[in-house]
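Milestone 3.1: sequence recovery, worked example.
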């Protein structure tokens, strides 16, 4: 489906003016969309002035300036487009046509807005924006269409780069599959590693740029597979080379190559928005989405009694109730949950029958009594569906919590490693059966969680988790069998370790996923704010020129992934604690939220995602995080001055700890290092110290919240002095106005930055 050039605020007025891009162009990325925002804004200004009766000299000069600015910006933009066309011959013809159209439209707008020097701009002797009112609209429409076309064509080059990178990776993978010597393997794998790093950066940028959250989630899942499989491919291939006649080693290696090829293919499907043989992607409908659609239809009867048939409504309910059989038929659903789901399913059928009966009567005669009966039937039906949704959510999440807790000790994996090294084939066979049982439990857990995930991205994450358990389980088994057959083999032991780590990592991911699903259900989930704390152009550059930014390779990112995971869990904990505060404007809360958001962006860095692209970005973020922590400590000291409670010494002690930890983090972040190894050590230290600060923050927030609640309950834990926060506000710091906060973090909101720039600057 085609979209308008910009769906963000400030563009709707252009639609009312008749502006629009080529209907055949679909904008799939935020960068293209945001680049168009300033242009649309400027053109909208012109369109809105063409019919205004009052035209002062100041207004005329402003119109002329805007018209000239648009023309100049388009001219420079077109120059860039023409250069791209010359470098990419397959797009040259299309790009050149679009550039010519854009240049012509820009010149037309400049001519029509050349009104400041005219005594009578409304005179028919001069064709202007006021005499040719449709001309400026046509020129604006052509300009938007042609500029959008240039941007979309340029975007194709990015897609081409990703495809080319994928093809390189595939070609090298084929060589790796065929190698027969260690020396040859090491040489080719070194090349493969570099190609995978390039592919990871290209696809990471693309993932962040995608507008569609569903595609973004699928891209993240595919990239996660490739990241984990890179290390698996290394150890599985080495094991196969060391034990060429071992069937289980060959099966293990083949499984890795197959999974990587599938992941690479999915990335290209997402990037090109196409599937093999033109088939559509089929994602099974979840109970949540089915109930949501069903309730929308039922509630729609209030407005229109005739917009759907009773058969349609009955079919929708049947589909939902069929899906509940996934719960009632599952061996892992408790007896209590099963009984409740069956009862609610039966009740839902009865409520719908009653609704249909009243609905049919209301179609024949709209009496007041019948419409009231219909309203009652609608409410009872929706209430029943809400209860059903609550019950399946409880069934899925309680099962997941129990399973994750039970399997978090990894006893089966530990036993497989021990029995494998002992060469005990019989014991290995026994524990592989137990792992298979565990796999079936976890796969069933993922299927049930998908039904209650609440959002499409989380549904996709559940599907990815299910696939991971399905594939990794047999791979662990083949790796364990190989080790049992060759118990003295160091590489076979290392290979089993790698696959076991992947399993453990997926279990940790499931804990976070369960948290997010619960957040959605409880209405606490929102977009995570990520502070763009990168240096502003011209402000910090003097300090940065001497430092060469370093990007971590795949192996290094894998090493810090565990720390990043812990950081992510802590950001969730801090967010949960801050949400418990009644006063969200409280200074302690705002500092805590800011630190959580910055820690989250550092977590994204450990995954090779987000806005922190290089190690220098990370170090700068760590400095600002530490500064924010120091400000929080100052706020805590000010708060403690008002406390008359036994907890005051503890609060002061924790505040002093926070100051000390933030100083250490700042020292680490500012320390000068040279060389890749030293840089990685610094990255590791920064993330570790950030994690420690976040751990302390998780203890501080509930303590402060408790003291405030005691005060509200009248326990007298605070002195009757002016409220500490108001007192600080009166000092004139205004530390948390939006402008001041932006300055504090050394950033501007990316959206505002792009919108307020001229068209050329945004490009």
């Amino acid at each position: 489906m085609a979209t308008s050039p910009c769906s963000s605020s400030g563009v709707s007025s252009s639609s009312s003016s008749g502006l629009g891009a080529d209907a055949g162009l679909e904008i799939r990325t935020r960068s293209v969309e945001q680049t168009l925002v300033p242009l649309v804004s400027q053109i909208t200004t012109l369109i809105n002035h063409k019919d205004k009766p009052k035209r002062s000299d100041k207004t005329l000069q402003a119109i002329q300036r805007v018209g000239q600015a648009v023309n100049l910006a388009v001219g420079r933009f077109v120059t860039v487009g023409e250069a791209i066309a010359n470098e990419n011959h397959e797009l040259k013809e299309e790009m050149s046509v679009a550039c010519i159209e854009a240049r012509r439209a820009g010149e037309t707008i400049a001519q029509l807005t050349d009104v400041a020097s005219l005594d009578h701009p409304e005179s028919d002797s001069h064709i202007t924006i006021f005499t040719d009112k449709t001309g400026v609209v046509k020129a604006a429409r052509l300009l938007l269409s042609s500029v959008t076309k240039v941007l979309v064509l340029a975007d194709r080059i990015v897609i081409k780069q990703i495809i080319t990178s994928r093809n390189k990776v595939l070609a090298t993978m084929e060589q790796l599959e065929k190698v027969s010597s260690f020396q040859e393997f090491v040489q080719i794998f070194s090349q493969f590693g570099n190609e995978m790093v390039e592919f990871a950066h290209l696809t990471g940028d693309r993932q962040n740029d995608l507008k569609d959250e569903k595609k973004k989630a699928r891209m993240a899942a595919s990239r996660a597979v490739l990241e984990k499989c890179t290390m698996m491919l290394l150890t599985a291939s080495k094991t196969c080379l060391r034990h060429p006649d071992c069937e289980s080693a060959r099966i293990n290696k083949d499984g890795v190559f197959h999974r990587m090829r599938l992941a690479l293919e999915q990335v290209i499907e997402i990037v090109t928005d196409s599937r093999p043989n033109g088939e559509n992607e089929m994602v099974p409908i979840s109970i949540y989405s089915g109930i949501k659609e069903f309730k929308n239809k039922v509630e729609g009867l209030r407005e229109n009694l005739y917009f759907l048939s009773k058969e349609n409504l009955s079919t929708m309910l049947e589909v939902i109730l069929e899906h509940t059989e996934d719960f009632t038929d599952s061996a892992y659903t408790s007896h209590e949950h099963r009984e409740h789901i069956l009862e609610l399913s039966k009740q839902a059928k009865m409520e719908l029958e009653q609704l249909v009966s009243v609905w049919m009567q209301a179609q024949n005669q709209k009496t007041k009594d019948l419409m009231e009966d219909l309203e009652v039937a609608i409410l009872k039906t929706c209430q029943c569906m809400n209860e059903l949704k609550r019950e399946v959510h409880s069934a899925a999440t309680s099962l997941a919590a129990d399973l994750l807790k039970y399997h978090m000790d990894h006893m089966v994996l530990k036993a497989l490693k021990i029995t494998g090294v002992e060469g005990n084939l019989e014991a290995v066979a026994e524990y592989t059966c137990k792992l298979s049982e565990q796999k079936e439990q976890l796969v069933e857990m993922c299927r049930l969680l998908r039904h209650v995930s609440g959002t499409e991205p989380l549904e996709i994450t559940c599907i990815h988790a299910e696939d991971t358990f399905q594939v990794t389980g047999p791979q662990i088994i083949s790796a364990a069998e190989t080790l049992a057959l060759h118990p003295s083999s160091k590489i076979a032991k290392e290979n089993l370790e790698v696959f076991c780590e992947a399993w453990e990592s997926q279990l940790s991911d499931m804990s976070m996923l369960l948290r997010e699903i619960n957040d959605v259900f409880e209405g606490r989930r929102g977009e995570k704010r990520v502070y763009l704390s990168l240096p502003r152009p011209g402000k910090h550059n003097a300090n940065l020129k001497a430092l060469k930014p370093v990007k971590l390779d795949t192996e290094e990112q894998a090493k810090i992934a565990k720390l990043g995971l812990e950081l992510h869990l802590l950001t969730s904990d801090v967010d949960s604690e801050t949400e418990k505060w009644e006063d969200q404007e409280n200074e302690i809360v705002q500092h805590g939220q800011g630190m959580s958001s910055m820690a989250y962006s550092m977590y994204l860095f450990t995954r090779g995602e987000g806005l922190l692209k290089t190690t220098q970005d990370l170090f700068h973020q760590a400095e600002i995080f530490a500064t924010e922590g120091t400000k929080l400590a100052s706020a805590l000291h000010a708060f403690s001055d008002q406390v008359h409670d036994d907890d005051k010494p503890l609060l002061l002690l924790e505040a002093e700890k926070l100051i000390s930890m933030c100083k250490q983090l700042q020292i680490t972040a500012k320390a000068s290092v040279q060389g890749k190894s030293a840089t990685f050590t610094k990255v590791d230290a920064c993330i570790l110290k950030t994690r420690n600060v976040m751990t302390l923050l998780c203890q501080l927030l509930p303590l402060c919240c408790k003291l405030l609640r005691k005060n509200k309950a009248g326990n007298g834990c605070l002195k009757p002095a002016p409220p500490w926060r108001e007192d600080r506000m009166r000092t004139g710091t205004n530390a948390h106005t939006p402008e001041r906060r932006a300055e504090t973090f050394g950033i501007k909101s990316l959206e505002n930055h792009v919108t307020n720039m001229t068209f050329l600057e945004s490009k």
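The chain has 26 helices and no strands. The longest helix spans residues 133-178.
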